[in-house]
Amino acid sequence: MGVAVEGSDAWWPAEKEPATLPELTPFSQQTRYIEIFSQSNIPFTYKVQSGAPWLHISSTQGTVDKEQRLLVSVDWQKAPTGVQRVPITITGPDGSTVKVQAVVNKPAGLNPGEVSGFVESNGYISMEAAHYTRAVDNGIIEWQLIPDLGKTMSAMTPFPVTAGSQKPGGGSPHLQYKMHLLHEGEVKVYTYLSPTLNFNASDGLKFAVSIDDAEPQIINMHKDDSHGAWNKGVADNINIQVSTHKTDRAGEHVLKFWMVDPGVVLQKILVDTGGLKPSYLGPPESYYQPEKANP
Question: Can you tell me the distance from the alpha carbon of 286 to that of 27, in angstroms, rounded to the nearest whole number?
Fold first, then answer.
């Protein structure tokens, strides 16, 4: 018997590190999977036992010819609040066993359908540029949506493109994104931009990022102005810039994307709290609920 889990390229019992499923929260995809497979051509029977009555397995016993996928889900009405690590014991031929840990996080006071903005799950928040909470203009410069420009949705950029550079902060033009973090501490923000020529012939086009009332960090999207960087950005149709920020608590925060120079086109923002995995497009958008309009 061999066992593989979602999110890992390892398999057990060959792997020595514990088998752990990606985190389950009420704000993430509602099932995770475990693959049971045969290392030979001989079918075998298996049994599965969950370590908690509210953690459900789609099949608790059966026969594996080649492979069998098990779906793991949570009864959120009965699951306790907080972070739980629940063992799932898989027993195969000759009494062989593999234990898989299911990490279940039910944050107190946050309920799907009631909370607005984005909610962290599995160690990150993924936000499409078009799903901002608030767009702050200054009467001359305004934010405009560019439909279908993004690799995974649409893009946002300030207009007019002939506007002068702005000093970020206060009421200067920026986009706000409400988000709920389940962890405190250092986070990395990955800003996905459309590749743009440095048409001002300056040292590079700039923007800024901040969380809550922290000082905006000014970032130069052309800090690497080599031909190699430009060729890769055009080939991938993306320019990714990374900044590091600190949060002193879990809970509600506001990420702000500030205009500095015109011509900077925002496609997507990823906030990594420790669980972000490498991928070409970035993970799918996190749980998102727009704010209800005032009556």
Answer: 8
Q: Please state, in angstroms and rounded to a whole number, the distance separating the CA atoms of residues 67 and 43.
A: 9
**Contact (Cβ atoms closer than 8 angstroms) between residue 4 and residue 10:** yes
- Max Cα–Cα distance, the chain, nearest Å: 74
Q: Kindly state the helix (H) or strand (E) to which residue 227 belongs, with its residue range.
A: helix 227-236
How far apart CA 285 and CA 268 sit, in angstroms, is: 9
Query: Does the model's pTM come out above 0.70?
Result: yes
Q: Which pair of structure tokens corresponds to residue 215?
A: 């000082």
For residues 118 and 116, give the distance between their C-alpha atoms in angstroms, rounded to a whole number: 7
- Rounding to the nearest 10 degrees, give the CA dihedral for residues 47, 51, 55, 58: 0
Task: Give the pLDDT band (50/70/90) at residue 202.
Answer: confident
Taking the alpha carbons at both ends of the chain, their separation in whole angstroms is 59
Q: What is the pLDDT of residues 45-85, one digit of tens each?
A: 999 999 999 999 999 999 999 999 999 999 999 999 999 99
The set of residues, in sequence order, having a beta carbon less than 8 Å from that of 136 and lying 6+ positions away, is: 171, 172, 173, 174, 175, 176
Euclidean distance between CA atoms 134 and 115, whole angstroms: 16
Give the count of alpha carbons within 13 A of 49, CB side only: 7
Per-residue b/e over 273-294, b at no fewer than 16 CB within 10 Å? beebeeeeebbeebbbbeeeee
**Which residues, in sequence order, are CB contacts of 240 under 8 Å at separation 6+?**
190, 191, 192, 193
d(CA 293, CA 240): 33
Q: How far apart, in whole angstroms, are the C-alpha atoms of residue 83 and residue 79? A: 10
